[in-house]
């Protein structure tokens, strides 16, 4: 770029700007013809020279939409340098600057969502509510960006704004954005589940006594659900040791705790009853929870303390067995018919 203009912009000198224009009246047009360049507006925005920036904005508004060699517009640079008042002034002149995409398709709105700047977020949504429709080249919406950057308060703010906004077709856009999938096929709901698992301290790769993780259990169950698998993997799930039994059904026919098995059956039956009224997203979430529950159940059932029976059991007298449904065997489960004594090896 013109060296004299560089100096003028870095100093914020309007007098120096016009001195250069007197020398070359076409100097701003010459800069504008360059596809990617740090214009005087870029330099002034970074330095926080508001008056100089506004004068350039008046003379050459096209500079405000131009990206430099790093892929940033003047508004992006002002945001990065915390030049908040300058951002307000630029957006007041042209509200659609909120939607101008820079590097990787990120807009100024995406940036304030990522950083959690509520003052600018409120301003951007007020002057340009349609900016919520823009997505990055990774297919990320403002909701994806908020959750991926652990901005849960920002996510909550955006959700409330969507519920109260008077924007045309707001309800349709709310549904569309919440169900939008990024390049990895993750919706906001997927990411939210993963965040919940991590925040709750769930040890996603904890192994049971057979060396199985939640991901191994999922594979053994033979559930055809790519969304569920994606959520587990997104949460950091990995495979443990190769399963040591032939199948999930074979495990249930082994010496698993009757009580744990009974709870597992009730959980799966309840899930089956409810899933007909669920969305695919909610069904995937519940399946994740069930798999994690199963992993914990296996941990308790397969690894009793000391490797011995913890109670007495006689199928002819034990009343606990009567709590199982009469069609228990027809469901594919076979309670252990053998007696055992507490303290004896399994």
Helix count equals 18
How many domain modules? 3
Q: Give me the Rg, rounded.
A: 30 Å
Name the overall outline: elongated
User: Unreliable segments (pLDDT under 50, ≥5 consecutive)?
Assistant: 255-266, 271-276, 297-308, 319-336
Order of helices and strands: HHHHHHHHHHHHHHHHHH
Count all strands and give the number.
Answer: 0
Query: Structural class from helices and strands?
Result: mainly alpha
Main sheet overview = none
Proportion of β residues? under 5%
What level of helicity do the residues show? 40-55%
Mean pLDDT over the full residue set: 76
Distance between the termini: 82 Å
Keywords: ANK repeat, Membrane, Transmembrane, Transmembrane helix
Transmembrane segments: 282-301
Organism: Carpinus fangiana
Protein name: PGG domain-containing protein
Structural features, described:
The protein is elongated. The chain has about 350 residues and is mainly alpha-helical. The protein is built from 18 helices and no strands.
Please specify the SSE layout and strand pairing.
Layout lengths: L2 H9 L2 H10 L3 H6 L7 H8 L2 H10 L14 H7 L3 H10 L14 H8 L2 H10 L14 H7 L3 H13 L5 H9 L9 H12 L14 H8 L4 H9 L13 H5 L5 H17 L5 H23 L44
Organism: Carpinus fangiana
InterPro entries: Ankyrin_rpt, Ankyrin_rpt-contain_sf, PGG_dom
Pfam families: Ank_2 (PF12796), PGG (PF13962)
């Amino acid at each position: 770029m013109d060296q004299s203009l560089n100096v003028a912009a870095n100093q914020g000198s309007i007098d120096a700007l016009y001195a250069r224009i007197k020398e070359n009246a076409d100097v701003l047009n010459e800069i504008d013809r360059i596809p990617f360049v740090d214009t005087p507006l870029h330099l002034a925005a970074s330095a926080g020279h508001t008056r100089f920036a506004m004068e350039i904005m008046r003379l050459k508004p096209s500079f405000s939409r131009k990206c430099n060699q790093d892929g940033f517009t003047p508004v992006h640079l002002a945001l990065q340098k915390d030049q908040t008042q300058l951002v307000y002034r630029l957006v007041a002149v042209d509200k659609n600057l909120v939607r101008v995409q820079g590097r990787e398709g990120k807009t100024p709105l995406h940036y304030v969502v990522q950083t959690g700047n509520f003052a600018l977020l409120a301003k951007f949504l007020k002057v340009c509510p349609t900016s919520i429709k823009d997505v990055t080249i990774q297919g990320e919406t403002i909701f994806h960006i908020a959750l991926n950057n652990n901005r849960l308060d920002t996510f909550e703010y955006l959700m409330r704004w969507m519920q109260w906004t008077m924007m045309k077709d707001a309800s349709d856009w709310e549904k569309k954005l919440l169900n939008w999938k990024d390049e990895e096929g993750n919706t906001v709901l997927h990411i939210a589940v993963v965040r919940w698992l991590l925040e709750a301290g769930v040890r996603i790769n904890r192994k049971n006594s057979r060396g199985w993780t939640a991901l191994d259990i999922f594979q053994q169950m033979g559930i055809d659900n790519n969304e569920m698998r994606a959520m587990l993997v997104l949460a950091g799930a990995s495979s443990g040791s190769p399963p040591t039994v032939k199948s999930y059904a074979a495990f249930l026919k082994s010496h698993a705790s009757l009580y744990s098995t009974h709870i597992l059956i009730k959980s799966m039956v309840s899930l089956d009853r409810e899933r007909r009224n669920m969305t695919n997203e909610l069904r995937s979430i519940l399946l994740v929870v069930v798999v994690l529950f199963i992993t914990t159940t296996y941990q308790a059932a397969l690894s009793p303390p000391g490797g011995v029976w913890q109670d007495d059991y006689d199928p002819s007298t034990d009343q606990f067995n009567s709590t199982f449904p009469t069609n228990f065997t027809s469901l594919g489960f076979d309670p252990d018919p053998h007696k055992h004594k507490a303290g004896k090896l399994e």
